[in-house]
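INTERNAL TRANSFER SHEET
From: sequence group
To: structure group
Subject: PXMP4 protein

Please process the attached sequence and return the structure record in the designated field. Keep the field labels unchanged so the import script can parse them.
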Amino acid sequence: MAGGDGSLRALLRAANALLQQRRYHAALAVIKGFRNGAVYGAKIRAPHALVMTFLFKSGSLREKLRAIAQATYAHSRNLAYFVFTYKGLMAAQSRLQGKKIPFHAFLAACIGGWLVFGENNPINSQIIMYLLSRILFGLSRLAVEKGYIPQPKQDPFPLVAALVWGTVLWLFEYHRETLQPSLQSSMAYLYEDSEVWHDLSDFLLYNKRTDSK
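Return from structure group:
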């Protein structure tokens, strides 16, 4: 037993020594990136899928739990694959050119996005739309920072909020099919289900009655 413990300690020391080797840093960073992508994807998707599934999806408890697990796995897997691909391509480009340049990040991410997130499905669609909104804000701030557009004299956020909400509700009311299904469900719950009730039970306690009265 003592011999087994000693072997385990020796193995751990060897592993820790390997992790400290600078020549393996790029390869090890790719591996840890895969790990962090998987963990982060699961942390982000699991609570979101839990809430959305139980709020808006019908079916048995088993079916709902399966849907949550599948969505969490897909998000976790895709993010892990993307980080692995991105960091691997970044390391390869840096090694080939002898230095790291800004275009490396763009090219590596484009290839990773095509390979990992190129399939048009609900999970990938949500991730891309999430990123797109952040990109638009980021590019706007960068344009001001670089002097391409003048610094606003007043905070433009109220105008942005008004335009975003005005546009999305117009789309929901008149071109609903253009919106993502989960957004359609959320808006139907907020703006359509609130138009229907029969008595106090489905006015205050429940959204919809489940009996046949």
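Handover comment: Residues 11-118 form one domain. Residues 61-97 form the longest helix (37 residues).
Transfer complete.
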